[in-house]
Design goal:
By secondary structure, the chain is mainly beta. It starts with a strand and ends with a strand.
């Protein structure tokens, strides 16, 4: 049933949102079942609702409205199995003003993106809907059925709704719905204009999103740790960047975001998106650092493009205590004419955990694929852990595949970036700083595999231990002597510190290399139980536990490659290739088992390795997936899984 079955008074949301409402029942269903004549709900959002009704009058906010709903919105899923189903209101006999819904709406009859049925004295003014709408009988993009009601200056998205018609309102394309002029022309009052009024009811990130109510903070949330502000669109991200007073709050990314400047409304930024340096200072930071928490929630921000001066990246400056985690940046293109430039952050005194950046980053000084300058000081240290960078990094001084200059901690990370510079150039870190007691860079349990080039102080792992101290490099960090093209692991220390270990590509793609150094891998406990790393033995370098693949491999047409996995058939478990429809590879023969050497005669029941040979037969890209299970146990989750991203050019 509805949370509030009947309302006769006023409910003022005061600009807050209620998230994750889940309710099912018969009819008059929503947060409110029915608003009586004279009742009012205002300034309220309901986010990610799941409302399921088996009867009539089902809405995300109100099932049956006889009162007034103003400045409200809904998102989520709304479904009814009878009549009058709407994204915001099921049946309306009252007043809806300046409201919208982006919810997905399904039902039997009278199914509308905003309102299912609008009766008699029902009015809709300056409202819109964008969600997908489907039903059997009388379906409308904005309103499904209108009998005597009035719909004024209201719209629906014909593309996202899947509906070309509505019983009220005007249908527009997505591009038109994300253009302010569409709404200004019919009198909507927006922030920053006065021709339509000074109440500033709506706001819009032109070309990036739909209109939003001026009181809204992002796509939901309350900024508390248990209910962070939700970043779901490019408009949300830009709004965060333009709101320094929120830089100490909690945020969570709830969807992938594409910042491609070639998309409608896209742009090439001239400074960091969040916590940029502002003003005319050439080298000094002029702005407000980000001190909050940003959880990427395993989502990706793609095609961030910046052309500017200093402190460039998604974040210009991460302050002490800030934390960015579980965030991916894909296909960045960041070009700076100065210093402190990275894919994720120009300068960081905070924590960067389980993040990655791919693409191209270039600048003059302290340039890194992920972080330009991971700073240390007397009171705070930047920390980068379980993260990686891949792509290209170009600069002059202190240029690193992952971090340009490091005065903090870098642990359990890797870089496959191709790095080039003039001085202090490293595959992982350009300069590992040791400046008295204030900055003591630590690099621990990391590796680099990309090509490195420069004129002075060039290292396969670290370019320079600044002032000869070298910080603390190692223990047990590796660099690929074949792919790097570098002569030393640390460019200005000879010999390399004991913890910097040079290996061939074959050794770098062998688990034993890292296990012997104490690295903690999935599936073993001798080195710990945190399961930080995983590896596709013989095919790829180690990958971090959170990456979607155990490894990635590129093979040419006709090439045969072998996947070898630990197995013990005496337990009944065997590896099996699954999901191979429309595959670009084919298996060559049966899997072969090789027992572990246990003496002569061999120990009965000992495990070993199961090997599969695959041949590339078609160009393309696929995920090769194998599962470890007992064939007779139907419906039981596999004990282990293995996935390999295969590319055939």
């Amino acid at each position: 049933m509805a949370v509030i079955p009947l309302l006769g008074g006023t409910f003022d949301g005061s600009g807050y949102a209620i998230s994750h409402l889940t309710t099912d029942g018969v009819g008059c269903l929503g947060l409110f079942g029915r608003l009586e004549t004279g009742a009012e709900v205002k300034d309220l959002g309901v986010v990610d609702v799941n409302v399921v009704g088996s009867g009539s009058h089902v809405g995300g906010l109100v099932g049956d409205n006889r009162g007034t709903v103003a400045d409200c919105y809904s998102t989520g899923t709304i479904s009814g199995y009878w009549w009058s189903v709407g994204g915001l209101v099921g049946q309306n006999c009252g007043t809806l003003t300046q409201c919208y819904s982006s919810g997905t709406v399904t039902g039997d009859g009278d199914v509308g993106g905003l309102v299912g049925s609008n009766w008699f004295d029902g009015t809709l003014t300056q409202c819109y809907s964008t969600g997908a709408v489907s039903g059997r009988d009388e379906v409308g993009g904005l309103v499904a059925h209108n009998s005597g009601g009035v719909v004024t200056a209201s719209f629906w998205d014909t593309q996202t709704s899947g509906q070309a018609t509505s019983a009220g309102g005007t249908g527009k394309t997505t591009a038109e719905m994300q253009t302010a002029k569409t709404f200004l022309d019919v009198g909507w009052d927006f922030v920053g204009e006065t021709a339509n009024g000074t109440e500033d009811i709506w706001k819009i990130a032109e070309g990036l999103g739909y209109p939003r109510l001026a009181w809204e903070k992002y796509s939901g949330g309350t900024q508390e740790p248990t209910d962070p502000y939700q970043i779901a669109t490019a408009a949300d991200l830009i709004a965060l960047g333009e709101t320094p007073e929120d830089y100490d709050k909690h945020f969570i990314l709830t969807a992938d975001i594409d910042l491609d400047p070639n998309l409608p409304g896209g742009k090439v930024f001239d400074k960091a998106v969040i916590a940029p340096s502002v003003g005319n200072a050439d080298r000094e930071y002029g702005g407000t650092p980000f001190y909050g928490v940003f959880d990427g929630n395993r989502h990706t921000i793609s095609h961030l493009t910046i052309k500017g001066k200093n402190f460039l990246g998604l974040f210009g400056w991460l302050g002490g205590g800030a934390k960015v985690k579980n965030l991916g940046l894909a296909g960045v293109s960041i070009t700076g004419s100065g210093r402190w430039i990275g894919g994720l952050a120009g300068l960081s005194c905070g924590s960067v955990v389980s993040c990655h950046s791919t693409g191209a980053v270039s600048g003059k000084e302290r340039v890194g694929g992920l972080v330009g300058y991971n700073a240390g000081s007397d009171y705070t240290y930047g920390c980068v852990t379980t993260s990686y960078a891949a792509g290209t990094v170009i600069g002059e001084l202190e240029i690193g595949g992952l971090v340009g200059a490091n005065g903090g901690d870098v642990a359990s990370c890797y870089s496959s970036d191709r790095v080039s510079g003039t001085d202090r150039v490293g595959g992982l870190v350009g300069a590992n700083l040791f400046v008295f007691a204030s900055e003591l860079g630590l690099v621990m349990g990391c590796y680099s595999s990309g090509a490195v080039s420069g004129n002075a102080h060039v290292g396969g792992l670290v370019g320079s231990g600044w002032f000869g101290g070298g910080g603390d490099i190692g223990p047990d960090s590796f660099w690929d002597t074949q792919t790097s093209g570098a002569l030393d692991g640390v460019g200005d220390l000879d010999p390399d510190p004991n913890g910097v270990i040079d290996k061939t590509t074959a050794e770098m793609q062998t688990a034993k290399t890292f296990l012997d150094a104490g690295w903690d891998f999935v599936g073993e406990t001798a080195n710990g139980t945190e399961d930080i790393w995983k590896i596709a033995e013989g095919l790829d370098y180690p990958r971090l536990w959170w990456e979607p693949y155990d490894g990635r491999v590129t093979v040419v047409l006709g090439q045969v490659f072998t996947v070898t996995l630990e197995s013990n058939p005496s337990t009944g478990y065997r590896w099996e290739w699954v999901d191979h429809q429309d595959s670009i590879v084919e298996q060559m023969g049966e899997a072969q088992f090789k027992p572990r050497e246990t003496g002569d005669p061999p120990l009965v029941g000992a495990g070993g390795w199961e090997s599969f040979d695959f041949k590339a037969v078609h160009p393309g890209q696929m995920t090769l997936k194998l599962v470890y299970r007992r064939p007779w146990e139907e419906g039981v989750e596999p004990l282990k899984t293995f996935s390999l991203q295969v590319t055939v050019p």
